[in-house]
Design a protein that fits this description.
single chain; alpha+beta; four-stranded antiparallel beta sheet
Length: 143
Amino acid sequence: MHTLFRELSHTRSHLHLCEQELALRMAGLLQDFQKCTVTFLSCGTDGQDGPTDATGAVVNNATIHNAGIVGLDYQKFLAQNDSYTFFQQLDERTLLSCEPSTSTQHTTTLSPSSSSSSSRTLVKTGLTGTNVMDLVVILLSAP
């Protein structure tokens, strides 16, 4: 974990998105963790992370898997320091349902989100007028 924070402190993001980048890096670390469900929230109390409309992001063990299903490579976005676009695209492509196909092959039909405003990973609270601290919450749930 110490290495993760050291990497973040040396990252040069063109948007300076500390909260969202921390969440995306944590999603990468959590993807193979199977002992329990882990939900990770990283956001600022001011309601804004860099020059974006999001204050942070919330991820879990399945975030990277779900991103792969809809064609997003999280490592590409990390390399470009563009976590906001990753989460924005993931939210826009959020699955409403996964229905088995009627064909003989086992495939999954993906349905895009009906509205990009129904954010699932980006946390959007609006400006709060306060800048007290950054907030990180980790929730562990039994399988």
